[in-house]
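Worked problem 6 (solution included).
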Amino acid sequence: MTKISAIAAAALLLAGAAQAQAPKPELYGELGYSFITIDAGGPDLEPGLLRGIVGWNVHPYLAVEGLLAGGVKDDKTAGITTKISNAYGVYLKPKYDFGNGFQVFGRLGYVHNKIKYSFNGMSASDSDDDVSYGVGVGYAFSKQWYGALDYTSYYDKDGIKASGVTLGVGYRF
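Solution. The predicted structure is:
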């Protein structure tokens, strides 16, 4: 009888300890700088983006994200100034947390991009949508704060490719 009592007491203590652990926050936000390369068949264009992401962890291995980005660095090549006016989209983010602070993830989504060109006082803009995808790594500095590095393809259509590497910092709410 004492063995059963000891096992029951241990099970209750373990159950209480497991419930005392706080769950990981489900909502997070991330802000990063994206080093973009646009390949349109001529010289590469390299504008910069400030990218914001709001995400929701729907499962330990999957999040849903919304992206909003705006151009913060123009590229001037051959007298033509290129700026990414904005980009916005939605993503599914499969991920795996190694438990030691490191995480790997992928992104698959759909994004809308708007680019503005100017030359000798004239300007034009173009916008289009495309499937977007990427891979990255993250590291948790604390329970709330983390850093991330990722590669994302924002556009790959009609002989034009726009992709980039983003260095970001995030906060879990």
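Discussion: Confidence is low (pLDDT under 50) at residues 15-21.
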